Amino acid sequence: MIRVRPTEFRSGHGGGMLRVSLEIFATYYYARRVSPAMITFEADVYDEIIEHAREGKPHEICGVLGGDRDENRVEFVRRVENVSETPRVNYLMEPEEQLEAIDDVEERGDVVGFYHSHPEGPEEPSETDEDRANWPEHSYVIVSLGPDEPFVGSWLWTGEEFEDEEVVVESD
Asked: Whole-angstrom Cα distance, residue 47 to residue 148?
């Protein structure tokens, strides 16, 4: 936990409340940014995104992750059609369907992030993924089917770069 020293934020008019608010904000913000990031999946949802990737192979698939953003916990997903002109190596969510999916997710919970697949790898975000990321402080999950077992990785988009997140799957 990082604490802000109250003396740094004193003022003659209501400094006490500002001092507490800044301390709470700094504690939350830096705890989220400095501590190792983690995303948690319910087991059936984790299996669902892998199955979606297998069904879509050889094309990339995509969707929206829903659940509890404060806990970075994925409780459900909403699939979205990939309308990329080069779906074997890129994804592009159908714009109207993406907006509908986000609305649907927000009716049931929070947008935790987004997912897509890399049918033949790699197991990390591509340069294109980085160029297209536009939801800061949200998770971007990649299902890589590669030659062996599926790999599911997650990265938090800071607004400037991806940071690794640990993927945790809850047992049933």
From this structure: 16
Q: What is the pLDDT of residues 137-149, one digit of tens each?
A: 999 999 999 777 8
User: Whole-angstrom Cα distance, residue 147 to residue 2?
Assistant: 43
Q: Hey, which residues are catalytic here?
A: 60
Does the pTM of the predicted model rise above 0.70? Answer: yes
Q: What is the pLDDT of residues 112-167, one digit of tens each?
A: 999 999 998 889 999 999 999 999 999 999 999 977 789 999 999 999 999 999 99
Residues 3 and 72 in one domain: no
> Do 19 and 96 lie in a common domain?
no
Alpha carbon of 1 to those of 10, 19, 33, 58, 103: distances in Å?
A: 21, 16, 11, 45, 34
Do 7 and 52 lie in one domain? The reply is no
By residue range, what is the domain housing residue 50? 37-170
